[in-house]
Amino acid sequence: MGVDIVIKNGKLVTHNETNEVAIAVDNGRIVALGEAAFLPEANRIIDAGGKYILPGLVDPHVHLGIQEPLVEDIKDTVAAVFGGVTTIGNFLPSGAMFDSFDEWQEVWRQNSMVDFFFHGRVTSSEASVREISARARRQGISSFKFHLAAKGAEYQARGLEGPDDGLLWAGFREIGALGYPARAQVHAENKEIIDRLTPPIMAQGRQDLAAWDEARPAFGETLAVEKAISFARLSGAPLYVCHVTNKESVAVIAKAKAEGLPVVGETCIHYLTVNKLAPLGPLGKIEPPLREEIHSEALWQGLREGSIECVGTDHCSYRRAVKQDLWQGRPGVPGLEFLLVLMLSEGVNKGRITLEKLVEVCCYNNAKVFGIYPKKGTIEVGSDADLVIVDLDKKGKLSAKTAHHRSDFCI
Predict the structure, then answer these.
(1) Which stretches of 335-387 are DSSP H helices?
(2) How many CB atoms lie within 10 A of CB 50?
(3) How far is CA 43 from CA 37, 46, 275, in A?
(4) Does a structural domain hold residue 87?
């Protein structure tokens, strides 16, 4: 009997090498690798024409279902498919209890066009800390996010208020006791500094992204990263620093890794490719903010050197209507469809990273960190056949008109 598919004449890319290897696929799994002549007969043959074959990307940082009903927001997984992203890590709504998890998961199963896993959140509630171990056992959730700057009435109204240091410590200890792949995630910013700096800048009436950066400065992020690393060191909890934006934070993470601490730094595609001088106004509002170009180059260097190990999108499906004002509008931008294209265009084709490094930081590392490797993130016998054929010579232009996400803008 033959197999479903054989892909031949392709250059297979993993996190450490590129080889001309044919791939046999049956029932959605990779069943053989080798010379095409020695692979089983296939019902369908795909000739890759000498192009590169990558594992499907794993976007570890996605927010679907935070504004619109999930059944609507989840339509953005179409954009993931068009962008070569085949698995996403989506954040659960804040405070979602056990009785709503099954419903949430079923909506995903019925409607998502890609595979998925979930991240939990830890809020200012004692109950959310106590739930960590139970969620890990009963729901299979292994990563839990602490929003260090989510404090005050604005976040209370959205059900997103983050923990104080006492609950942060308790949560880290719970995670440290669970073992792999349990991991603490942090949104690293300092709210007290933000609250001090924001009012006078707002009073100037500014709507430019440089004002947003000044109100939420890079040094406040770095201070929060240092605190999270200290808590990780003392508690034994592996740490994942979400959306790193600046060179000082990269250096702090690199130092912690050199000391042997299990700290993973993540950045997002917008911090690598767009800076605060872009004439986007409120459309470019993101937390943490876009920074100066010097920080983007430091992030690329961090990827090359290994201090930054993962790249995601922090994708939100917001529309222009909720981003009309810099200070009151929603923070977040779409990105699912652009991750691979921009990592190829701005990373590989400009000589900042190799194709192998792209696979490492967008596939392999993301899968290993969140416990889904080798099912995902690689091209091996037994792995899911999530495959992307890439033409490095193809040219195009990104825009909201050509994208498949529900947002009506693109930065």
Answers:
(1) 339-342, 355-359, 365-369
(2) 10
(3) 15, 10, 48
(4) yes
Domain count, the chain: 2
Question: What is the longest distance spanned by two Cα atoms in the chain?
Answer: 73
Kindly state whether residue 409 falls inside one of the protein's structural domains.
Answer: no
Give the model's pLDDT for residue 335. 97
**Per the domain annotation, does 406 fall within a domain?**
no
Q: Tell whether 38 and 62 lie within a shared domain.
A: no
Beta bridge partners of 63: 316
pTM above 0.90, yes or no: yes
320 three-state secondary structure: helix
Whether residues 188 and 246 share a domain: the answer is: yes
pLDDT surpasses 70 at 189? yes
Q: Tens digit of pLDDT for each residue in 212-268?
A: 999 999 999 999 999 999 999 999 999 999 999 999 999 999 999 999 999 999 999
Q: Identify the helix (H) or strand (E) that includes residue 55.
A: strand 52-55
- What's at 25, amino acid-wise? V
Q: What is the pLDDT of residue 98?
A: 55
Q: Are residues 40 and 64 in the same domain?
A: no
Q: Indicate if 229 and 368 belong to the same structural domain.
A: yes
Instruction: Give the domain range for residue 7.
Output: 3-47
Q: DSSP characters for 394-407?
A: ------TTT--SS-
Residue range 163-192: average pLDDT? 95
What distance in Å separates the CA atoms of residue 226 and residue 290, rounded to the nearest whole number?
20
Residue 97 clears pLDDT 70, i.e. is over it: no
Q: Are residues 224 and 99 located together in one domain of the fold?
A: yes
The predicted structure's pLDDT at residue 145: 96
Flag whether 165 is in a domain: yes
Indicate if 12 and 148 belong to the same structural domain: no
User: pLDDT (tens digit, 9 = 90+) per residue, 98-155?
Assistant: 568 888 899 999 999 999 999 999 988 888 888 899 888 888 999 999 999 988 877 7
- 57-63 and 3-8 beta bridge pairing: unpaired
- Give the relative orientation of helices 126-139 and 98-111 as an angle to the nearest 10 degrees: 50
At residue 153, what is the residue type? Answer: A
| Region 25-30 average pLDDT | 98
- pLDDT (mean) for 299-307: 98
Q: Is-contact 123 91, C-beta < 8 A?
A: no
CATH number at residue 42: 2.30.40.10
Higher pLDDT, 340 or 163: 340
C-alpha pair distances (Å), 76 with each of 54, 67, 82, 83, 407: 22, 13, 10, 11, 9
The DSSP element (H or E) to which 153 belongs, if any, is helix 153-157
Strands, DSSP E only, in 123-168? 143-147
